[in-house]
Write a structure and sequence with these properties.
Blueprint: E1 2-10, H1 14-32, E2 38-49, E3 53-63, H2 70-73, E4 81-89, E5 92-98, E6 105-114, H3 125-128, E7 134-138, H4 173-176, E8 181-191, H5 197-221, H6 223-226, H7 231-256, E9 259-260, E10 266-267
Parallel strand pairs: 1-7
Antiparallel strand pairs: 1-8, 2-3, 3-4, 4-5, 5-6, 6-8, 9-10
Helix pairs in contact: 1-5, 1-7
GO molecular function: phosphatidylinositol binding; phosphatidylinositol transfer activity
Domain Phosphatidylinositol transfer protein N-terminal: 1-242
Function: Catalyzes the transfer of phosphatidylinositol (PI) and phosphatidic acid (PA) between membranes. Binds PA derived from the phospholipase D signaling pathway and among the cellular PA species, preferably binds to the C16:0/16:1 and C16:1/18:1 PA species.
């Protein structure tokens, strides 16, 4: 098991990011879904928890075979997806990832949002108890992003919001920016397979960090698209984008039904795996 705590600051308030997060996830999922890969929304509905109260539950299938490293692709099926289950009790959320093909693999993420610059060192005292963990600050402006994800329009070193007048964010922006908030994420990765555990857990954390960096960058880069939305507006947008995204993923599924892979094994519909 490898446990890390990520802290990602944003030039937003926690209340603003409630809208921005939902908008970003829906738009990002749609953009990343192509060629039969991406995110298929299976379930998205209100959920009530006796401890955390009213929230939203979502279940998704994340298709990502081609995004795996070569050593991992050698041991997984051509048709491969991870199940994501999320309970959103904003400003507290729980997200879990599992894979039926890899029963000893799991990711557990607990997230809390606060209006500060990542200065709360005790935010996960109850959840993490006495477990040792590395604290990783992620700078959405100046941390290097993988080249395949880079877009000039999302480069926050040069971005200024027309509607909020926030930006351009200079070096050391977290010490001077107002408003400012922080996403605190406690991430546990488990892959209990002898000989592969350390390598896989370290690789998964690297992927998670890249995804967190990209997602939070986009949330602010797209702020002028969502800042005027209400919660009802963004839920309707979320619904529309989920439908469009499912169509993109499923169209490729139908086109690959009963096709044959290079090793001669018949490939069936992803929905049946």
């Amino acid at each position: 098991m490898l446990l890390k705590e990520y802290r990602i600051c944003m030039p937003l308030t926690v209340e603003e990011y409630r809208i921005g997060q939902l908008y970003m996830i829906s738009k990002h999922s749609h953009e990343q879904s192509d060629r039969g890969e991406g995110v298929e929304v299976v379930q998205n509905e209100p959920f009530e928890d006796p401890t955390h109260g009213q929230g939203q539950f979502t279940e998704k299938r994340v298709y990502l075979s081609s995004k795996l490293p070569s050593w991992a692709r050698a041991v997984v099926p051509n048709i491969f997806y991870v199940t994501e289950k999320a309970w959103n009790y904003y400003p507290y959320t729980i997200t879990e990832y599992t894979c039926s093909f890899l029963p000893k693999f799991s990711i557990h993420i607990e997230t809390k949002y606060e209006d500060n610059k990542g200065s709360n060192d005790h935010i996960f005292d109850i959840e993490a108890k006495d477990q040792e963990r590395e604290v990783c600050f992620v700078d959405i402006v100046y941390d290097e992003i993988p080249e395949r994800y880079y877009k000039e329009s999302e480069d926050l070193r040069y971005f200024r919001s027309d509607k909020t007048s926030r930006g351009v964010l200079q070096e050391g922006w977290r010490d001077t920016q107002e408003p400012i908030m922080c996403s605190y994420k406690l991430v546990t990765v488990k892959f209990e397979v002898w000989g592969l555990q350390t390598r896989v857990e370290q690789f998964v954390h690297k992927v998670i960090r890249d995804v967190l960096l990209l997602g939070h960058r986009q949330a602010f880069a797209w702020v002028d698209e969502w800042i005027d939305m209400t919660l009802e507006d963004v839920r309707e947008y979320e619904k529309q984008m989920h439908e469009k995204t499912n169509i993109k993923v499923c169209l490729e599924e139908h086109s690959t039904n009963s096709s044959t892979s290079e090793d001669g094994i018949e490939i069936h519909d992803k929905a049946s795996t």
